Amino acid sequence: MKRFKTIAAVSTTLLLAGTLAACGGSADESSDGLKDTYVVATDTSFVPFEFKEDGEYVGFDIDIVNEIADRAGFEIDLETTNFDGIIPGLQTGTFDIAIAGITITDERAEVVDFTSPYYKSGLRIGVPVDDTSITSVDDLEGLTIATRLGSTSADYIENNIDGATPNTYEQLDQAYLSVEGGGSDAVLYDAPNVEYYIQTTGGDSLKIVGELLEAQDYGLAVSQGNEELLTAMNEALADMIEDGTYAEIYQDWFGSEPEWLDQLAESQVG
Questions:
Q1: Are 30 and 103 part of one and the same domain?
Q2: Of 201, 216, 231, which marks where a domain is finished?
Q3: DSSP symbol at 132
Q4: How far apart are CA 214 and CA 219, in angstroms?
Q5: To 5 degrees, how large is the angle CA 116–CA 187–CA 41?
Q6: What's the CATH number where 57 sits?
Q7: Pfam families of this UniProt entry (predicted)?
């Protein structure tokens, strides 16, 4: 698959969750209240944010969370799950942190905490290259639209497109294949993933139509009650943006600096 970055292996510390639980107390906490290791959940089907290649978990999100962990002074135990299992896993304490292109919403913020935004996004529509009937979101009324299970895109389809049926999938590649195979009329999902898929894989079968929908911010989600962790992560993220490290990581994966970098810097808490 073509992309801008030459991937190096990403190092994560893989520890058994049971061992973490057994340590407990001050033995696995530093003087600033942080544990030595946190369980980080991700979903590896959100290219180029997180995916698996040659046995390694790689992507923009993986680089971001590793840099934050290095700066905050903790190790990560990376766990993978389907996207719709991430928020419940944070609620039950199965995971401490999650990064998977998670849109910050009021509903989600009631059950988990979010860092400051680390990415500004929106929704894009993809349709078959030979389709001339769909040129905007208004043309999606009454159609079947492929998207990801548990996503804000699925909510958008149900709440904003009259008569449309969301055709939801656990894995994103299934959503694209559904449109390419005629099982869905269009795909609607987060802009960077739709754009990247068409640029690298689906350019002969899909095209983007319409305007960017629903401006969104991505944040790292943290299980509630971890104020020291949230503060440390926000400080690390703000420092990354200020010293240029964030822009370097972004350029590695997307080929240019984000045009909204100044807006992102202004939104930081840390």
A1: yes
A2: 216
A3: -
A4: 16
A5: 40
A6: 3.40.190.10
A7: SBP_bac_3
Give the tens place of pLDDT for each residue, 86-126.
999 999 999 999 999 999 999 999 999 999 999 998 899 99
The C-alpha angle 21, 89, 53, rounded to 5 degrees, equals 95
Residue 45's domain comprises 17-118+219-266
Residue 94 carries which side chain, given as an amino acid letter? T
Cα–Cα distance for residue pair 262/57, rounded to 1 Å: 29
What dihedral do alpha carbons 44, 50, 54, 56 form, nearest 10°?
-90
Q: Tell me the per-residue pLDDT of 157-169, one tens digit each, with 9 for 90 and over.
A: 999 999 999 999 9
Q: Are residues 184 and 248 in the same domain?
A: no
Helices 60-72 and 227-243: angle between axes, nearest 10 degrees: 110
In sequence order, which residues have a C-beta less than 8 Å from that of residue 83 and are 6 or more positions away? Answer: 43, 45, 46, 100, 148, 149, 150, 151, 170
Q: What is the mean pLDDT of residues 232-244?
A: 97
Structure confidence at residue 31 as a pLDDT band (50, 70, 90): low
- Domain boundary (200, 216, 232) is at 216
Backbone angles phi, psi at 239, to 5 degrees: -65, -40
Neighbours of 207 (CB within 10 A): 16
